Each structure stands twice: as C-alpha cells, then as structure tokens.
Amino acid sequence: MTSLKTVLKAAAATLAAVAALALAPPASAAAQETGLVETEVTFTSGDREIGATVIAPEGAQGLPGVVLVHGAGPGPDRDRYRANAEAFAEAGMVAMIYDKRGGAEGYSQFAASIEDLADDANAAVEAMRAMPEADPELVGLHGHSEGAWTVIEAADRSDAAAFVITSGGSALTPEDTQSWMNRSELIRQGVSEHLAEPLGERLIAAVVEGGMYRLAGYDPLPPLKELDRPFLGVFAEFDLNTPPGRTMTLYRDALEAGGNANYALRLIPGVDHRMVPTVDGTKAEDYDRNEIDQAYVDTVAAWVGGLAAGETAVVVDPIPEESVASDPVASPPWFGTGAAMFGALALFAVLFLAYPVSALVARLAKRGPLEATWASRTVAVVGLLLPVLASGYAGWILMSGGQMLLGPVVLGRPLVWLVLQAAAVVMVVAALALAFQLRRPMGGGSRLRFAVLLTGVAVMIPWGVYWGLAA
Fold first, then answer.
1. Which residues contact 16 (CB under 8 A, 6 or more apart)?
2. 35 near 57, Cβ under 8 Å?
3. Could you give the CA distance from residue 344 to residue 339 in angstroms, rounded to a whole number?
4. Contact 227/259 with Cβ under 8 angstroms?
C-alpha cells in the first residue's frame, strides 16, 4: 500500500516539473528562425546524471533520431556539435547533444575508459527513445572522430541503437592514428620523412609504454565485425586527423567478414575532418567550424531516410590512396621508454650542472677559481638546455598533432628543430675542443669537471640520434 509520504513526494515532484515547464525559457532566436525546437533533458548513466539538449523540427513526432557522440577532448561542452545537430534537425531528424565526461568523471588528457563513454552513449539513446519526437525503433548513434570508437563499442555493448554512423573515424588504434596524423601533417608541411618518424612517433611510443596514452590499444575492428545493425561510415576527402583510405578498407573488410549486408562507406569531397568545406584540409583565416558541409548532411539524411523506408544495400565509394603509410607504432627500445627519457634528463641535469655548482662551491670555500674555457662554458650551457628544449618541442608536436611547428620549415626541418640541431653541432665541436684542452696541465678539480662534461656529451650523442637531433 502506498504511504502518505510517498504520495506527497510524488505530488511535489509533479508540481516541480510543472513549474519548471512554466518557467522554462523559450527556444533560442536561432532555433525559432529555423523552425527548430529545443528541449533540455537529463538522463543517467551509472551514477552520473547527464544534461542534454534535443533539437527537433517544430511539431516533430516519431522522426528518426540521432545521438551525437563527442570526439576527443574533455566535457562537458555539448554545444561543440550544436551545428551538426541543427543541420540534422533541419534535414528532418531529431538530434541530441549531451555533456561529455570531464576530469572528475574519468576523462582527461591521459586517461579514459571507452566502456564508460560507450555506456553514456547508450544511455543517451535510451533517453531519446522515450521522447515523443523520435521513433523509438529508429534512434541511432553518430560518433565523430574519437567518438567513432565510442559508438562502435556502444553497439557491441547494447542493442539500444538501431543504427551506427561514424564521421572522420579511424580503424586504427588511438596511438596508431595519432602517429599517422603527426607524420602525415609534418610531411605535408615539408618536414623530411627521415625526421617525421622520430619527431612524430617516438614520443607516442614512450607515452604508450608508460601507460599514459588515453585509450591506447583500443581496436574498433573486432566489435565492428560483430555489428549486426546498419552502419554508415562517412569520410572526408581532406582528413588530416585520421586516414580515410586505410579506414575505409579496414571497415569494409571487417563488415564483410561479419556478414553485414546493410552498410555504406561514403567519401565526402572537399571537406576536412570536421566535415567543413576546405581547399586542402587546412584552416584558412575565414574558417568556420560551424559551417557544416551540406553534402555531408544530405548523405547522412538520405541514408537514414532509406532505413526508415526499409531499404537494404551495400555502398562503398572509391577508396582514396594515401601518401603516408599507416604503420603501427613500434614498441620502444629500453632507451626510448618514458622512464629512460626522464632518467636521461635527470642524468644530464646532474652531469652538466656539476660544472657551475663545483665552481660555486670552490668560490664559497675560498679555494680559488677553477679553470674555465669557452669550450667548457659552451658544453655546460648547451648540455643543460638542449635535452629539455628538444623533449619539450617533441611534446609540443605530440600535443598539437604536428599542426603547429612554431615557425617555418627550412631544409626539411622545422626552424625550431634546425636551431636545436645547430646547437647540438656547436656542443660537439666545443666538446672536441674541450677534449684537446684536457691534454694540458691543470688542477685535479678542473680536470674532473671537464671530464664530467665530456661524459655528458658522450651520453647525449646516442640519445640525440634516437630522438632525431641527427636526422
């Protein structure tokens, strides 16, 4: 029997809901002008309450629905895909955008769970299926970029989604995708292939080995092979973030191996990774990330419309060739691991700081000045700065995806890297001079600290060769 307390709580909840509806702001001016209606909703995924916005044509009822799943980057910025959602709604669908996880929910620059992201996506589908605007039997997932891995995993974990769409997805693991993006972007900007590999990939291998690379090792092909629902993969002609040709091939092979008889792999001409019109994939001064290409919207809308009409087909556009191979990231040698890298930086700090520290100690102890030459000073200064700056620049390339070189490319090298290589040459020349200076008589303290400097150079030479300073 229902208690009085329960009845009162239910009545209070009803009154609160009515009040919220009465006080809710009207649809935005942009939505009103385009005939779209926005509805703010919440749903739960595990112990997380998630806010979302549903965008639909005015008066919509029983339309196909699509949940837009974020690409890389922490939440909650649901409006990142507002332009996509509005474009789909204008094309006759109901679209949902929702708050992505942030650092407090387990998604950061270095850590994430594809399973958690997938469960959030499935919870969003269930929430949309309960809305009158959407056809509960025709609500699917749309994942962009990193979101492509999420929606494929989500479909493997639940039957909630009626279909799966990916845009700008990659069939490679996250680390292999990052490596391809770095190397292809460096080569596109004129960096030599000999330098693109150490500068674009080796730090990735170190980060992966150290367990600090988000979603490392996730392979979307096994769950894609098991996908038993309609699938649409949309690819960009000028995608600089994921390899469209390689992905189309691997997607096709996985879907065929799994016996999926209802899929399409479509290549959209003249667009970049975000499906924004572009000349060659680069962002011009007037670039607008919200200018979603109409051909992409029409492709998605026509395919979903075909599903609503009961159509079944396999369509694969001509697969483009790629000039940069999508090779897997190799496991680093022991001296290329993250631990070895930080250990080397610490060792260099000790060896090259010993030079000024010993001089300071001698002065404080009033033992008289230790011998110093231009060669010893040069080796000490360059030896201290070069490893830190080289590691920092490699990290910058990793974080920017090879797109921000901090200067022009000269002689097949980013200008910053060319300067670092020139500094390395100066240090080696100074070290040779210092070795020659060691032949003359000098005090034991001076001889020892010169020898320590030369030891640092001897260790740095193979270190620099591995990290591309000799490329």
1. none
2. yes
3. 8
4. no
